[in-house]
Design a protein that fits this description.
The chain is built from ten helices and two strands, in the order αααααααββααα. By secondary structure, it is mainly alpha-helical. It has a single domain, classed as Hypothetical protein af1432. It has a two-stranded antiparallel sheet with strand order 1-2. Strand 1 and strand 2 form a beta hairpin. The longest helix is centred in the N-terminal third of the chain and has 22 residues.
Length: 204
């Protein structure tokens, strides 16, 4: 599948087909695609407060595609390379670029990690990434990045409360705590109990 025009945003069906194509196992598909769908649910819940100013179709596509690079970290035995997990964003962006997706879609992959990785973060922490800024710049990118913080692909998968995420992100610096607080102030908190009941994942 190749997207021919930068103005084209892939449909849910096209995106699911990509997940099915690149997932190395059924278990990997279930883990990654389910997470992406849940992030989409979180984003759409938050969208109700921002709909007039946000490209809804782009948010859906970004949510459903943001973790597609995770599949590139599975080996032939179906084992996930956790040590290089941070690279899943740049791997996903490269995959979508190679398929001809427009930049406004492929950027969601590399620009959703944490509350945004800066060039300084990459250099100071010695991260295994090409030196550059991986921050969410548009409101759509910020919304997908933020929605992603509320669900984790742990074993078992779980929803993450704003308080839990804020406590965890503190180890990356006070600036990250402030940035997350700004996102909470801007977008509000999703109703995780409703989402937990729908998807049967606990809240922690």
């Amino acid at each position: 599948m190749t997207i021919q025009h930068a103005s084209v945003i892939p449909t849910d069906e096209q995106i699911r087909a990509l997940h099915e194509r690149y997932a190395p196992t059924e278990e990997a598909f279930d883990l990654v695609y389910t997470h992406c769908r849940i992030v989409c649910d979180v984003a759409e819940q938050l969208l109700d407060r921002h709909r007039p100013a946000v490209d809804v179709e782009l948010v859906r596509a970004g949510s459903l595609l943001h973790d597609i690079g995770v599949y590139r970290l599975y080996d032939a035995t179906g084992r996930l390379d956790h040590e290089n997990y941070l690279r899943h964003g740049v791997l996903g962006q490269a995959l979508l670029r190679d398929l001809g997706f427009p930049e406004l879609v492929s950027r969601f992959c590399a620009h959703h990690t944490g509350v945004g990785l800066t060039r300084d973060d990459v250099l100071r922490q010695g991260l295994a990434l090409p030196v550059g800024d991986y921050t969410a710049d548009t409101v759509e990118e910020q919304l997908v990045m933020y929605a992603d913080k509320f669900h984790s692909k742990t074993t078992p998968p779980a929803f993450v409360s704003a308080a839990s995420y804020a406590a965890g992100v503190r180890r990356f610096g006070a600036d990250k705590v402030v940035r997350f607080a700004e996102l909470v102030e801007r977008f509000g908190e999703p109703d995780l109990l409703a989402l937990s009941r729908r998807h049967q994942h606990p809240v922690r």
